[in-house]
Design a protein that fits this description.
The chain has a single domain, classed as 3-Layer(aba) Sandwich (Rossmann fold). It has 8 helices and 5 strands, in the order βαβααβααβααβα. It has a 5-stranded parallel sheet with strand order 2-3-1-4-5, with helices on both faces. Helix 1 packs across helix 8, helix 4 runs antiparallel to helix 5 and helix 4 crosses helix 7. It is globular and about 55 Å long. Bound molecules: adenosine-5'-diphosphate and magnesium ion (MG). Adenosine-5'-diphosphate binds next to helix 1, helix 6 and helix 8.
Length: 221
């Protein structure tokens, strides 16, 4: 029995966290007969939560782009060693909110770090572990910004305006990754209402999950 890693990707406000929770409940309720782990990056471990607060807190010091890249790598190395690998070894299905594609999209395409460096950091953290399936929630960056605003209940400021160009580059990055890995990354139109997006997600997941279960059965027999 083989574990599987499903990652949820997309820009901030794309709906990743909401859809992951819905998928988790659906999988648990529908009796897919696999134990599940829902986790996230950064911050999927105790050590990772320290790193997450360094990464996401606004600070008067500017976090250097390469330092940021390495902190994400450290978070991921710990997360894989402590949570993901052990779960996969037990045959569990792991749902992960952001993973390596976010690093390529944000640190590579968004920040503009050299792709070779980004790739090195990812390889060091993952040692080659790749998701079995990646759902890329693709939303219009303006819509994502509006959702984040509604979530926070705040207005637009200079930083958010600068943030839009950044989110657009990041979205473009996910687009390029999806082109590069067409078998693994599936694009989901996240601009529709929540329920409609979830219907699409289930349509994508169902045949994959069935395929995985039958592969597991063949392994046993
Ligand atoms: N398809 C959607 N339609 C409308 N609102 C949505 C949709 N998906 C998510 N939201 C809302 O947008 C906000 C951001 O969603 P969230 O799942 O936290 O996104 P992410 O984890 O990708 O940043 C939340 O308030 C959520 O309820
Ligand atoms: Mg989220």
């Amino acid at each position: 029995m083989q574990g599987r890693l499903i990652t949820f990707e997309g820009i901030d406000g794309a709906g990743k966290t909401t859809q992951l929770q819905w998928v988790r409940s659906w999988l648990a309720d529908a009796g897919w007969a696999r134990s599940l782990v829902a986790t996230r990056e950064p911050g999927g471990t105790g050590i990772g939560r320290h790193l997450r607060s360094v990464l996401l807190q606004v600070n008067d010091e500017v976090l250097d782009d390469r330092a940021e890249l390495l902190l994400y790598a450290a978070d991921r190395a710990q997360h894989i060693a402590q949570v993901i690998e052990p779960a996969l070894a037990e045959g569990q299905w792991v749902l992960c909110d952001r993973f390596t594609d976010s690093t390529f999209a944000y640190q590579g395409f968004g920040r503009g770090l050299e792709m070779g460096l980004v790739e090195q950091s990812v390889r060091m953290a993952t040692q080659g572990l790749q998701p079995d399936l990646t759902l890329w929630f693709d939303v219009d960056p303006e819509m994502a910004a509006k959702r984040r605003q509604d979530r926070a209940g705040g207005g637009t400021d200079r930083l958010e305006a600068a943030g839009l160009a950044f989110q657009k580059r990041t979205r473009q990055g996910f687009q390029e990754l999806a082109t590069q890995f067409p078998g693994r990354i599936v694009q989901v139109d996240g601009n529709q209402e929540l329920e409609a997006v979830f219907v699409i997600v289930k349509e994508i997941l169902e045949p994959r999950l069935k395929q995985w279960l039958s592969e597991d059965l063949m392994e046993v027999s």
